[in-house]
Structure formats: C-alpha cells, structure tokens
Amino acid sequence: MDVLALVALTGWLYLALGHGAFWRTGPGLPPGDDPREWPEVAAVIPARDEAAVIPETLPTLLAQEYPGVFRVVLVDDGSRDGTAETAAGLADQVVSARDRPEGWAGKVWAMSEGVRAAGDPDFYLFTDADIAYEPGTVGRLVREAVDGPRDLVSQMATLSVRTRWERVIVPAFVYFFAQLYPFRRVTRDGARTAAAAGGCMLVRRAALEKAGGLDGIRGALIDDVALGRLIKRAGGRCRLDLSRDVVSRRPYPRLADLWTMIARSAYHQLRYSPALLAGTVLGLLLLYAAPPAAALAGGLTARPVPLGAGALAWTIMTLTYVPMLRFYGLSPLRAVALPAVALMYAAMTVDSARRHRAGRGGEWKGRLAAGPGHADRRRGRRVLPVRSGTQREER
C-alpha cells in the first residue's frame, strides 16, 4: 500500500504540473482582426436519423451572418426518419451518401461525400447535426485560422448536463479527453499530441489535400482525433479549445445512453489490443482508486505513508477536476467523487471490448462500425463493413 500510494502521488504530481495543464478549461478563441478578404467556407454535416434535432441546430448555422461566402451542405447518411426531407428547407444543399465502399467508416464516408458536393472552398467546417452555434462563431473560427495561421481550428462543444447522469458522466468525459489530449499540447507547434473535437472542425482545404484527403482516415471510428493527427503529421498547425460558443443539443437522459456513447469507441481507441486494455484499466485503478483506498487504509491502520501520500494524491486529483465542474456550472464538491466515476469509465472500457468480441463493436444507430475483420463469435463468422446499412459475411 505504501508503494501504490507513492506511485499514485508521483503520477498526479506529473499530471498536475507537467502534462500540458490539461485541467485548465482555457479562455477559448482569442480576438483577432478581420481578414482583408474573407475566405469561402462550406459547412459539411454528416447526418443519420437526425430529423428531430436539425430544426433546432441548422438555423444557428444559417444565421451566422458570415461576411464571406458560406454555405451548408448536409449529407443524408442512409437515414430512415426523413432527415433529408426535414433538412431540405434548411440547408443550402442536401445530398444522399452513395453506397459506402469497403474499408470506410460510415461517418468519414459521409464527410467525404460532403467534400465532393461542396466543391473547392477555402475551408471546410466539419460539424455534427446536433451542434448549435452562437452568433458570430464561424467568423471567429476563420479569424483564428487566418491570423494563426492555422490549418485546423477545432472547438469541443459544451455537452448537455441537464439530467442527473449527464452531470455525473459528461464533465468527467471531457476531463479524461483533455487528459489524453491536452489542448495546449495540441495547439503547440512541434508537439506530437494531435487531436480534434468532431463537433466543430474548421479545416483548410489545401492542408487537407496535402495530407492526402479524408481517404487517409477512411476507416477511423474516432474520426476527429484521426483528422487532427492527419493534419499535424503533414506539417499543419492546429488549435483545440473547449468552447461555450459551440453547444451540443443531443440529450443523454439515461445512464445506458451515456454508457453506449462511450463504450462504442473505447476499445477502438485502444486499437483492439487486450494488452492496452489491461494497461488502461490498471492505470485507471492506480491513478484514481489507489489514492482514496490508501488514504482510508492508512487512516484506519495509523500508517503515515499511505495516509499522507494517498490523501495528497486524492487532493491533487480533486483540484484538477474543479475547473471542469465550474465550466459546466456544477458544484466543486462533486470533484471528491471522481474516483468512483473513473471506476465507471473502467467498466465502460471493459464493456467496449466485450461488445467487440460479441460482434457489436462500434454499433451506432443500427449500423456496425467495428474494427477491420472483427470476429462475430456468436456465429463463427467474420463481419466486414461494406456499405451504409449493410454488411458482408465471410464464413
């Protein structure tokens, strides 16, 4: 217990002091001067069964009053709820995605269909159907891209925390994402850390073409992180912030909804590796469960090392979580319970691997988007994604 407490404390000292200040929510985009000539921007929105939300979100894009040429292209990705018909009176252009070729993830293919329909703008704004924009947001994104200059400017949307489980899970989700991909390191030139937030990604067309286009991430289930890596590895300059100007209107009223949202991609992020899965779970236990366990055990047994080291590690953990809770308007007292939330995330990660082994990896809105050649162990078959809404099976 002494060793575990000291190792956990060492880990939290590094995370708090030497890990890109991941816990800081940041000021958002800085003010900038208007460009001499406003570049052309095309918003590309892949949408699958989003008829309920787009009447609320699409008007916020159309009301941006962007000074340059700006248009909105919505790609209907095999919807069954009338998404295309609902969007017809809202978006500038609505296109239906063609059959998805083998090897392409559904969303990335829909994004590429939007790029094909958008022509040759200076920038693409890849955004999700559930994202609403505050007035002037597109202009601020473009100012940063031009002034930076930046090839990718991404804003992590403010997620819903209306329900009890959203208030438990959502701030921790953003906190863990920032811990994996510290926003300051993403923004820093020369740093290897690369990521983006899929709800809002303004990408310079020339930089995307230089990096090989969306074909370079065609199989990515976590398309935003993959796109950030693609642009940065090609020499592009990136920026990632947490934003109140970009807001998700998608509700997650039940724990099951949040669980599915996280479990569908967690194992993919670990590259379907049992070794990485085991390491991740052990790391979560060491960093988040060991400090309170050591502090409580040390207090009960009057052992100063686990008591002191565990309590200090737990305190540092709590303090780094407080800024995220404040960003979401929640009580800082919730930060004390972060170890329990981390254990839930460990369970979600394990469940993500279980779903993959059961042949349901990456399932979303009735479509499988699992890793290449994943095994369906219930039927002894290989299931290979082929096209939107369909699968091919090989015995």
TrEMBL record:
E.C. no: 2.4.-.-
Transmembrane segments: 275-298, 305-325, 331-350
Record-linked SUPFAM superfamilies: Nucleotide-diphospho-sugar transferases (SSF53448)
Region (Disordered): 361-395
Domain Glycosyltransferase 2-like: 44-210
Keywords attached to this entry: Glycosyltransferase, Membrane, Transferase, Transmembrane, Transmembrane helix
GO molecular function: glycosyltransferase activity
Top-level division of the source organism's lineage: Bacteria
Span of the signal peptide: none
Protein name stated in the entry: Glycosyltransferase
